[in-house]
Amino acid sequence: MSATVRILLVYYSRHGSVARLAEHLAEGVESVDGAEARLRRVPEVSPLTEQSKEDIPASGPPYATTGDLSDCDGLLLGSPSYFGSMAAPLKHFLDQTSPLWLSGALIGKPAAVFTSASSLHGGHESVLLEMMKPLLHHGMLIAGLPYSEPALLNTRSGCTPYGASHDDHPQGSAISKDEQACARALGQRLARLAASLKAGT
Question: Residue 86 to residues 37, 62, 76, 119, 170: CA-CA distances in angstroms?
């Protein structure tokens, strides 16, 4: 592959489990020749739903901008489950993408989603499906995880055909081998799709 395929991973992670899952997705992306994973976070918001952190974080990946979305060839979007819904900081970030919708900047780009919840019944699939909706409105091509991935059939914790997930019970628990495998497989799949689309094949 001659041109680099840029896969953007945008996520909110309050306690670190979504961030750890993002690292496994990034490994999958970068296992594809010529693919580059770009990790970006979204900041906390105040009760007034405005950014409540400095523009540049003290550590970790930089904060995402709408310009990052314009520049990517594919998107992996992640959020913890808050009562079966995506976290407010990620929703706030997505609510700022109307100019991209108006320009059609994301049409035809592949995307996938990932989450972490504090139990197996904490809303994994509902959050994944909720995150897909704004991406569909942007005209993005949604990629799930097919059952040809063995870990999807073997898992006794997180991971679904709708996207990668982690059962974070108790809080701070290690990401299981099956959850890691599913995350890497999804990252790899999205990078390959982005490469094919960019090459016009």
Answer: 22, 20, 14, 15, 20
The CATH code of the domain that includes 101 is 3.40.50.360
Backbone angles phi, psi at 183, to 5 degrees: -65, -45
Counted domains in the chain = 1
Is residue 71 within a helix (H) or strand (E), and if so which, with residue range? helix 66-71
Query: What's the pLDDT tens digit per position in 128-141?
Result: 999 999 999 999 99
For residue range 137-174, what is the model confidence (pLDDT) as tens digits?
999 999 999 999 999 999 999 999 999 999 999 888 99
- Fill in the DSSP letter of residue 116: E
Report the candidate in 178, 58, 75 with the shortest Cα–Cα distance to residue 132.
75
| Cα separation, 169 vs 122, whole angstroms | 10
Record the pTM: 0.93
Instruction: Report d(CA 117, CA 123) in Å as an integer.
Output: 7
Range of the domain at 26: 5-199
Task: Give the DSSP H/E element, type plus range, for residue 142.
Answer: strand 141-142
- The Cα–Cα gap between 19 and 11 comes to 7
Please report, to the nearest 10 degrees, the dihedral formed by the alpha carbons of residues 177, 186, 8, 125 taken in order.
-90
Q: How many CB atoms lie within 10 A of CB 125?
A: 16
Q: What tokens appear for 182 in the block?
A: 């599913």
